[in-house]
Amino acid sequence: MRTLTYFVALTLDGFVCAPDGTFDFFPESPEIGEHLTRCWPELVPSHLRARFGIDAPNRSFDTMLQGRGSYQVGLDAGVSSPYGHMREYVFSRSLRYDVDPNVTVVASDPLTTVRELKQEEGLGICLVGGPTVAGVLLPEIDELLLKRYPVVAGSGRPLFEHGFEPQAFRRVESTVFADGSDYTLFRRAG
User: Fold this and answer.
1) Whole-prediction pTM value?
2) DSSP state of 149
């Protein structure tokens, strides 16, 4: 069975973006970018791969999931298929179905779609973006790949928008960078 990994940046106090959805307060770090490119090249958006000299095959993921909010960031920049080197799914009830031939817009239950995708053959499935879809998909999330920055936001949108339902994960590996940022991979416990 394929795994679902939630890949997201967050602050020390657990917010993935500001209350208005912006995330431009996260610091830029060449060291973090180099780590991402080396370990998970498929997580670099298609339109940036040539700029960074990435011509590597997908190692861990071949399917990308996004909610409407995170997908809109690319649309606003004129990018309708940000992960064109993978199968792309966007969960939205308001997005046009023909937004891009590489993007499958899903207006139905995300859990059903993810459960079907997990039964297919292939590499892992990656979820990027915001807490709304992550909250819905939490029962199916196998791994958390957290890109944590040494920033306290004070308020914003949390890692998951989900009711109180504790779920245990265990730390598998962590890489700490000179600026205090880290990448930490957690897997569902049990």
Assistant:
1) 0.94
2) -
